[in-house]
Amino acid sequence: MKYPNGKRLNTSQNTMQAKMGSVFSNRGMTLEDDINATNKFYLESNKAIIHKKPTPVQIVKVNYPKRSAAVITEAYFKQASTTDYNGVYRNKYIDFEAKETKNKTLFPLANVHEHQMEHMKSVTDHGGICFLIIRFSMYNETYLLEAENLFYYWREKLSGGKKSIPYSDIAKKGYLIPFHYQARIDYLATIDKLYF
Amino acid sequence: MKYPNGKRLNTSQNTMQAKMGSVFSNRGMTLEDDINATNKFYLESNKAIIHKKPTPVQIVKVNYPKRSAAVITEAYFKQASTTDYNGVYRNKYIDFEAKETKNKTLFPLANVHEHQMEHMKSVTDHGGICFLIIRFSMYNETYLLEAENLFYYWREKLSGGKKSIPYSDIAKKGYLIPFHYQARIDYLATIDKLYF
């Protein structure tokens, strides 16, 4: 695995995290929770403007009761045609998808829909910074994987190759994102090293 | 009113639009319909990757019937904390809000929420291209107004000034977007002149 700064988490950091207990450690927090907290920190510290898009929902029926808010009484989840997160950082368009897997040996490509893959390809073509954040929850490891790597494995899959990315490849080609107290999943530190 | 290219719609264009009838004219189409169609055209012609964000919904109850899709049976509309549209164009982050008004003399600032205003300010600070698309539906005129203008009137409002932008100011400081057959509201043509 590659850290952008070439270092592993040092022992004092690990100890500090352990001392913080359940509130500040990321045990039991989903990747989405961690990324939302990170984006909130970025926003409040005026580092970047990155938001999660709302869940796409097909609204079918809405009631408008008198003197109270409209209630949606029938709606369905729609498949997302883009990625979950986007925004602006250092004049650049940022776009990414976050995925968590319990698998210990591989990341299944079925986790990313074809529409999302096409979207990521287009974003890259138009000069956006595009990547995947993948958490292997059994190892509690979170990686940033540049979209180009994903395209490579997607092409392999389309030409009859395997339908997943081996964990070992992600650990080699991706960048481990260390867990921090404030910016829990400080992916922009990795982006700084890679693009600026 | 300013056209970026200094020209008004010529007569043959107007006549052509009239001939196209109800399907292709924008009569009866909402601004949102027109912008969605424009973004679809941009996407398919690989000009830009700009999407409308899904409507933010607070989901309260979901049923999971056997052998069919999950049904959301109770949900509420949430106020948007960002703008409706964003994406990437010519390596730049693009972010805008679209508003339609039936008012003939002014655009009420109440149409833009404080959160959205703060978001637009932040986007501008971080190097994104940020603007408002305003349609005066009684005139069937659609303007692009750079976010900086909006901030000016917002500050005026906060310091006790008027709570709207006069139509005449929008016609002067904004850029009229001509109606086109394919890119119905071709706002990127204006962005090209202003930023590239």
Please, could you describe this protein's structure?
The structure is a homodimer of 196-residue chains. Chain A has 196 residues and is of the alpha+beta class. The first copy, chain A, has one domain: Trna Endonuclease, Chain: A, domain 1 (3-Layer(aba) Sandwich), CATH 3.40.1350.10. The first copy, chain A, is 35% helix and 28% strand. In chain A, strand 4 (85-89) and strand 5 (92-101) form a beta hairpin. The radius of gyration of chain A is 19 Å and the shape is globular. Chain A starts with 10 loop residues before the first helix and ends with a helix. Residues 5-26 of chain A have low confidence and may be disordered. At the A-B interface, strand 3, strand 4, strand 5 and helix 3 of A face strand 3, strand 4, strand 5 and helix 3 of B. Strand 3 of chain A pairs antiparallel with strand 3 of chain B.
Can you describe this structure in just a few lines?
The structure is a homodimer of 196-residue chains. By secondary structure, chain A is an alpha+beta fold.
